């Protein structure tokens, strides 16, 4: 049962076929170049694309725009304390700002950071300090048909082996990302968070939790982990973070805002150091690159994030999209994670070789067929990485209804019908930094 109703709506239109073909050509077969007006169901990302509540919109008006000591900051502090159990908070413009503040204060050249799987921006911030990001996912994390309740877990044994190899003194930070975004949004168990914290302790390292989807993760823990079913979601959400020395948070995910983020830190000295870095990169530590109203909306969103009916519907909506796609014969990663469904384009379009970007071809055809926008996370987005050609369909929070998801599944079914006709793509224009090519490169179909 939905626990909210609509008060404001945004009109969307399905452009006609000719319009879609034109738009795709003009975009150079890259959906990042599309105008959002030309998109009907936008599943590009769940980051900052959700719908705020009436309470959040009301909170915007309460925003205190004082440069220092804003009362909106005090309300954020109180929300972070109540919901996440941290007293020291540094607001930042978004999640990567929090990563800069935390990792910039903790890392030095030559250090090694262990993480269940580094999210792209986390990896970049570790690298930016001259440190090395090492992933410790459990077996099956990237396997489309793996079964398991907590495939997002940190492989603690592997972490220990790496520590033996490189030396504990080189590992000042151990991180766990909940849910594990880069492993198809799979959840991490409470027991695993505890064990990872113990590993950090053994290594005398700081333990950081990337908490972007802490509420969705808590929902999975309640549903799946033995002994957790009777606990309040909010308790589980807090316990997950109670083992951490610091957390980094993107408000654009579970805090239900369109922009914002923060770091929260337990240690007084680290907090002082991080604040100095925040002043340099984000702004005075009571506003951190945000307007007071943005902070205010984030404080309200954080409390709404752990409302059990909301989170249950949110995660179930993603699962529903997965089921509809499976019924349409589309190969997806199962079990579905918390924020997105991953389609195996390499399998669906198995006549297109990896170097001709089957994932990007699928993204294009989902747009051409039904103005649905997803994103390729395979050979196009990660050149040279040995990973499957997946396409991610991320579901924005509180935004689409079942009818939209049915449209996505019908679109995918129509694409599947015509799959033999599709040819691969080649890049005809790309930016100098290969790692960023999927945001702006232009492609063309190749017949061969
Ligand atoms: C989105 C995200 C970030 C970065 O947050 P931004 O707000 O996009 O800067 C970091 N970690 C994870 C797991 C994320 O999903």
TrEMBL record:
Tell me the InterPro entries matching this sequence: ArAA_b-elim_lyase/Thr_aldolase, Beta-eliminating_lyase, PyrdxlP-dep_Trfase, PyrdxlP-dep_Trfase_major, PyrdxlP-dep_Trfase_small, Tryptophanase_CS
Q: What is its EC number?
A: 4.1.99.1
Q: Name one GO molecular function term.
A: tryptophanase activity
Q: What keywords sit in the KW lines?
A: Lyase, Pyridoxal phosphate
State the superkingdom: Archaea
Q: Does the keyword Lyase apply?
A: yes
User: What are the required cofactors?
Assistant: pyridoxal 5'-phosphate
A Pfam family: Beta_elim_lyase
Q: Which residues form the Aromatic amino acid beta-eliminating lyase/threonine aldolase domain?
A: 42-410
Uppermost EC category = lyase
NCBIfam families tied to this protein? PRK13238.1 (NF009709)
Q: What family is this?
A: Belongs to the beta-eliminating lyase family.
This protein is called what? Answer: Tryptophanase
Q: Which organism is it from?
A: Halomarina oriensis
